[in-house]
Amino acid sequence: MSIFARKPNSRWPFVFLFLALSISLLSVSLRSPQVDPWDEPELGCTSIMAARLATTDGSVMTAHTCDGNYRQWLNIVPRAQHYEGGTAKVFMGKMHTETSTDPRNIAEKGEVPDVKETYAFLNTAYPCLNEHQLAIG
After folding, report:
1. Are 60 and 135 in contact (CB under 8 A)?
2. What is d(CA 119, CA 9) in angstroms, rounded to the nearest whole number?
3. pLDDT at 37 over 60
């Protein structure tokens, strides 16, 4: 009888197959290029905010550089009164639009209940300031 003869309930073929597959997968994963998800300097932006206690005259200021492939626009939304029970739509993708009214590349994500009154605010693709210099962003 040969020393390589297979015994009826031997596990060696399965162990060998498992080890061969494991080594193959390990070698493929080690040779794959590693991608750093944070390595996108051309898509980085900078936001700077100064609160009322950080400025000499008590003003609140905000600035934003759009260093990526997005467009930046600004419009002033006036103070408004809303109907009781009304809703405001919430959109995603405003950073890819050319104007505040551009509907391309945006998706409606839902609605939120309207409040009775909203203050005037600077509308940008990013959060900004309202008329009382309350900043979100």
Report:
1. yes
2. 79
3. no
